[in-house]
Amino acid sequence: MTAQDQNGQIALHVASEAGCVEVARILVEDGTHISARDERGLTPLHLALEMRHVDIACVLVEHGADMTVKSSFGRTPLDMASAANKWKLIACSSLASTRWT
């Protein structure tokens, strides 16, 4: 899905921000561009972490989302995560990298 709304967001942005884990998973597994940026330079991972949806963030990271990409404001997804969620996300990332190597 590549259709964008007025903010430059695709369906994966919306699902990530709203906390719709299964929708996000289906979109990712269907090949939706995981690193798509909206008009503010935010990726679905930025939005998931901003809204504290670490479960969605883990799905995104497990499928290759970049935790170091910066928004238009110079913020990475990790910058947007709460302290507790940073550790959960790092754990997801570690598990994903061992699973795929």
Give an account of the 3D structure.
This protein is mostly helical and 101 residues long. It has one domain (11-100): Ankyrin repeat-containing domain (Serine Threonine Protein Phosphatase 5, Tetratricopeptide repeat). The protein contains six helices and no strands. It has helices at residues 11-18, 21-29, 44-50, 54-62, 77-80, 83-100.
Write a concise synopsis of the structure shown.
With 101 residues, the chain is mainly alpha-helical. It has six helices and no strands. The chain has one domain (11-100): Serine Threonine Protein Phosphatase 5, Tetratricopeptide repeat (Alpha Horseshoe).
Q: How many helical elements?
A: 6
CATH architecture grouping: Alpha Horseshoe
How many beta-strand runs? 0
Rg for CA atoms:
12 Å
Helix content: 40-55%
The fold-level CATH name is: Serine Threonine Protein Phosphatase 5, Tetratricopeptide repeat
Unreliable spans: none
Any idea of the CATH class?
Mainly Alpha
Structural class: mainly alpha
Major β-sheet annotation: none
Straight-line N-to-C gap: 29 Å
Q: Quickly count the domains.
A: 1
N-to-C order of helices and strands = HHHHHH
- The CATH superfamily name is Ankyrin repeat-containing domain
Sum up the overall morphology in one term.
Answer: globular
What average pLDDT do the residues reach? 87
- Percentage beta strand: under 5%
